[in-house]
Design a protein that fits this description.
24 strands; about 675 residues; Helix Hairpins; single chain; 6 domains; 24 helices; D-amino Acid Aminotransferase, Chain A, domain 1; binds 2-(butylsulfanyl)adenosine; five-stranded antiparallel sheet; alpha+beta; OB fold (Dihydrolipoamide Acetyltransferase, E2P)
């Protein structure tokens, strides 16, 4: 039968969109812009609207389907979903391998080492290459049918690529990126909702939503690391299995290392533990697997745990300790930040003696009281937080519930908490604590990066009444600096030089440095790009800010409010008089080091996010391209770089490693 041209176009669009999803979510290296992607989706939607008879369940337009009614249906796992036995030390890993050697070993064995993703185990069923069903692990024998919610995860292929087997059940983990987790919690806090305790809880909570639209809105990700069943295909090794899953378009667990012998396997485990905090997602261990499938089968399982694999679990990033006191500090935007003062405890090698309690809502929800024993958690470079109270250990008689003070601990003016806001604020314009925090923040790395102006000196300058706001910094003389305690002649000169250099920082850094409530790095970059000068931004109202820069109403209102205040207008005037640049770089005709060059980034960077790397390159004048062409000046290739790296090599476009990129950025910043 001849194929109808509309059906042909629809099929082609679905294939293209599927491939772009794969590039974006799996390879992390999109080849088209978001706008181009949206255009493909729009075209597909329009065709399907005109021809509803051609809509199929595996169309990318159908990812977010109907709301489930009632609870999730139960799904039986035909092949049980196994779990893993744990090892908590090198000794336990070696004991495990001695048993493997005793049972099947006759020399050095091959092992694979993968990160142990801290998410939610799931099984994905494909029939004739189509995604038909997905289930949670449950108790390993019976899980819950979360098909509709899994479909909402963009990284999940609805159709397999290449030659699809009649039946494939892949197994893996649904997880949430750390940055998505932080964003989700921020939004929840703003809406007065409770925070999720970990990315894992957030992922589980999101996947088990009855409304797939919520799952879709929470940016879940997916990794696969095993097959439950596959018809008509067999594998000799685990590495081969993963390669096969990758070729079918499934997002295979990142960074699998194939090694010989237990020494190398243990070294790989340690490497993962060291890299743990630089990864964009949470891992709680490394999984060692015997590579040979024949040996795996020989080894079999004890109960639910296969003998051929072991999870080396990293030292916990949680510990219990006591709350000695609850104090409040005042942030640079006036936010009142309740903080638990803890009996010092070592968590993952770092001594923790303070933990954030976020705000009154969170304290109420967790019911944290002075004297309580609490579980404290540390993750990456974020401030440690109190996860929960160990109620069984609450002192008797019970301590009183804790409530926020009525007055600012620094300036004594009343604390204000507006309706609907989770945070309370000190709104006094001349609060000394706010002044100090604003100076410290202005000088910090993410803002104006003023070397030598740290916390102590900032406090001293404010307390000596030499500096009241950030513009005053530029009026400080060497003599005044020398009066400061322990500031040597040389340090004073260096600081004056650093201050001078900071006058040329890009506009977005200055905006970050002004401590405008709700305005972060990303928002500042967007505003700087849209308005190009402080004057243009300062004369816009909230509506225009929101419209022109595409920022949300909360940020827009806060920015407009900031510039409407007369003391801030005065601040801008004095910054201008001091010679601080208030326009976008390059608008004054000054050439930038990477002007006219186009960079393409691919693969995963270890030391920063893709967005941060792009922003740093843009500040030096570079353009960021999405595809590698003859016009591309440089390709920056991170770990697991894919097709773009190959293309760059083919076109002989220079390729930089992450180290080379960092070296260049450092050189330009110097
Ligand atoms: S293999 C038969 N590989 O850890 C072995 N599991 O504690 C099946 N997990 O239920 C699991 N990352 O949810 C394997 N790279 C990885 C993993 C991984 C995370 C989870 C999985 C499993 C649990 C066991």
């Amino acid at each position: 039968m001849e194929q109808d041209p509309v059906a042909g176009e629809i099929a082609s669009l679905r294939t293209q969109i599927g491939q772009h999803n794969y590039r974006y979510f799996v390879l992390d290296s999109p080849e088209i812009t978001d706008a181009e992607y949206d255009a493909l989706m729009r075209r597909l939607r329009a065709l399907e609207e005109a021809h509803p008879e051609l809509i199929t369940a595996d169309s990318p337009t159908q990812r977010v389907g109907g709301v489930a009614s009632g609870d999730f249906a139960k799904v039986e796992h035909r092949v049980p979903m196994l779990s893993l036995s744990n090892a908590f030390s090198e000794e336990e890993v070696r004991t495990w391998e001695r048993r493997v050697q005793r049972l099947v070993g006759d020399g050095t064995l091959e092992y694979t080492v993968e990160p142990k993703i801290d998410g939610l185990a799931i099984a994905l069923h494909y029939e004739q290459g189509r995604f038909v069903r997905g289930a949670t692990r449950g108790d390993g024998l019976v899980g819950e049918d979360v098909t509709n919610n899994l479909r909402a995860i963009a990284a999940l292929p609805l159709r397999l690529e290449g030659e699809a087997p009649a039946y494939l059940e892949a197994r893996g983990e649904v997880y949430m990126l750390k940055r998505e987790f932080a964003r989700l919690n921020e939004r929840r806090a703003e809406a007065g909702e409770s925070r999720f305790a970990s990315p894992r809880n957030a992922a589980a909570g999101s996947l088990r939503q009855l409304d797939p639209a919520i799952t879709a809105s929470r940016a879940l990700r997916l990794f696969v690391y095993a097959v439950g069943r596959v018809d008509g295909v067999s594998f000799a090794s685990h590495a081969e299995t993963l390669a096969y899953l990758g070729e079918r378009g499934l997002p295979v667990v990142t960074g699998m290392r194939l090694v010989e012998g237990i020494d190398a396997a243990w070294a790989a485990c340690q490497a993962w533990e060291r890299e743990r905090e630089t990864l964009p997602f949470e891992i709680d261990g490394a999984v060692i697997k015997v590579n040979s499938i024949a040996l795996q089968q020989e080894l079999g399982a004890v109960g639910r745990d296969p003998r051929w694999a072991i999870a080396y679990k990293f030292a916990a990033l949680q510990a219990t300790t006591q709350v000695c006191d609850i104090m409040v500090t005042v942030g640079r935007t006036g936010s009142i930040n309740p903080t638990a003062v803890l009996a010092p405890v070592v968590i993952g090698g770092v001594t923790v003696s303070r933990a954030t309690l976020h705000n009154q809502n969170e304290i109420d929800r967790k019911d944290v009281r002075i004297g309580d024993t609490v579980v404290v958690q540390r993750a990456g470079d974020v401030i440690p937080e109190v996860v929960r109270v160990v109620l069984e250990q609450r002192p008797q008689p019970e301590p009183a519930r804790w409530v926020l003070p009525e007055r600012c601990p620094s300036c004594g003016s009343p604390i204000v908490r507006e309706q609907g806001e989770a945070m309370a604020y000190c709104v006094a314009a001349d609060c000394p604590a706010q002044r100090e925090e604003r100076i410290i923040h202005f000088a910090s790395r993410g803002a104006m990066n003023i070397d030598g102006l740290g916390e102590r000196l900032a406090q001293a300058l404010v307390r000596a009444a030499l500096v009241r706001d950030v513009a005053d910094l530029y009026a400080v003389s060497k003599e005044q600096l020398l009066q400061m305690d322990r500031l040597a002649d040389k340090s004073a000169d260096n600081l004056l030089q650093a201050l001078e250099a900071s006058k040329n920082r890009p506009l977005d850094r200055l905006l970050v440095g002004l401590s405008i409530r709700h305005l972060g790095t990303k928002g500042a970059e967007t505003l700087a790009a849209a308005f190009r000068s402080i004057d243009a931004l300062a004369s816009a109202d909230a509506d225009e800010i929101s419209r022109r820069a595409g920022v949300g109403p909360v940020i827009a209102a806060s920015v407009a409010d900031f510039f409407a205040r007369s003391h801030n207008q005065d601040l801008l005037r004095r910054l201008r008089e001091a010679g601080v640049r208030l326009e976008v770089d390059g608008d004054d005709g000054q050439a930038l080091p990477l002007d006219g060059q186009e960079f393409v980034l691919t693969g995963r960077l270890g030391s920063m996010t893709r967005g941060e790397a792009e922003a740093a390159l843009k500040r030096l004048g570079a353009r960021i391209g999405s595809a590698v062409t003859r016009k591309t000046s440089v390709v920056v290739a991170g770990e697991d770089a894919g097709s773009k790296l190959a293309k760059a090599q083919k076109l002989k476009v220079p390729v930089w490693t992450e180290e080379e990129l960092l070296a260049r950025l450092r050189a330009e910043a110097a």
